[in-house]
Amino acid sequence: GNLLGALGITSIVLVIAYLTVGGYQQRLEEMATIDHLTRAVSRQAFDLLFSQAIHSTNRHDGGVLSVIMLDIDFFKHVNDTYGHAAGDYVLQSFVQIVNDTIRSIDSVFRFGGEEFAVHLHNTDEIGAKLLAERIRLNVESTIMRYKGSSIPVTVSSGIATLEKIDNGQSLMERADKALYQAKNNGRNQVQAS
Q1: I want to staple 151 with a disulfide (CB 3.0 to 4.6 A). Which of 41, 85, 144, 145 is the partner?
Q2: 123 near 137, Cβ under 8 Å?
Q3: Does 140 qualify as catalytic in the annotation?
Q4: DSSP assignment, residue 188?
Q5: Catalytic residue among 114, 115, 140, 163
Q6: What is the pLDDT of residues 7-34, one digit of tens each?
Q7: Nearest alpha carbon to residue 153 among 66, 85, 83, 76
């Protein structure tokens, strides 16, 4: 009787330990792949998923992959004027708008600060421009309210589509260059490289 009781208690303890360790492992994996503030996919996960997407696109003849780089315009002004809590709210709201606009097979990635990226499977330059413009319009038309203040927000975007000569770095550099062209041309617009 005592032996069966000890085996039962040991089994229960082992199951609880297994579930606890599994839960911690799952939380650690989430912390490594999800930005805790915005719930966007992290930069570290982007690097891995993006290289897989490029490899997959290059493997399939006729495969297409585009990237949108997004930067919230004058974000420092939001933090300076309304406070960092309001800035956090804007970042969270922005990611929600982007997630509501993109397809379920695409993901928004936080690159850092107020800069984000979306890689678009099976999307050519025309489709990427249309989606980036839809994101821009959705952000511009959303009134973000925080503690009684209406915070106007716009976004600048740069897009690039994978070409035969591209690798991941060159594709991102072209998208980034297009983003800075959009910012230099007055912001709240989409540019393609």
Answers
A1: 144
A2: no
A3: no
A4: S
A5: 114
A6: 767 777 666 766 665 544 444 444 458 9
A7: 76
